Description:
Elements: E1 5-8, H1 12-23, E2 32-35, H2 39-47, E3 51-52, H3 56-61, E4 65-68, H4 75-82, E5 89-93, H5 100-106, E6 112-118, E7 128-133, H6 140-151, E8 154-159, H7 164-172, H8 174-191, H9 196-217, H10 221-228, H11 234-244, H12 247-263
Parallel strand pairs: 1-2, 1-4, 2-3, 4-5, 5-6, 7-8
Antiparallel strand pairs: 6-7
Amino acid sequence: MEYKLGIIGYGNMASAIAHAIITSEVLKPEEMATFDISPRARQKATEQGLQVTETVGQLCRGSGMILLAVKPNMAASVLQEAGPALEGKALMSIAAGVPSRKLKEFAGSYFLRILRIMPNTPAMVGAGAMVLSSNTDFLPEEQRRAEELMGAVGTVEWIEERHMDAVTGLSGSGPAYVAMFIEALADGGVKEGLSRPQAMNLAIQTVLGTAQLLQERKMHPGELKDMVCSPGGTAIEGVQALEEGGFRHTAMNAVVAASEKSKRLI
């Protein structure tokens, strides 16, 4: 049997992607297979209805399209192990910091087409930012299929591969920064007397609602800031405190630092 999608590695991100694809009815569970050396990962895949193969070569030979979902330092060994089973295959990779040229190098003399993808953790609830590299040798039909698959997981953005490290620093790593901001907002509320559950619920909804407003109204963030900050009011006092703490400078540096780290992964 040929599977429409074979997944190498079945960690949190891979299982989230598979779950979203199944939930959106883009593919049925039986149309997907996976390979992972972890008994826990294999069990999870089985529970989701996926076929589990005994070897990575078996998975690649039997799959029309492949998703490489292993840690960056495992990409070389996994592709080398797959060897001839990669010949002529279309491979999507979510391995951070591993460029297409390296993936082809790892495959050795075997020819495969590469599409790099950078997801982020909100994919676990179908709200991911899925960035696909426009520098791909996927066939047009394969590109459409990849977009359909990743569109089941969240919004899809196509960019040039040279910007993938920047994406890793922004949307790939960004959920960690946003989570820290939410936690800090809640801590501020607790300091001012709110209960922890109340403060956390208000912080989460504030961030969620603000993002939704910006997206739906297509507003510039500065415009929304100005709407909230009335002359001599409370919000402008808070904005001043953020500026004194170097909030924007620090947030920009976080993206740059993560992007630079991505460049050094391989």
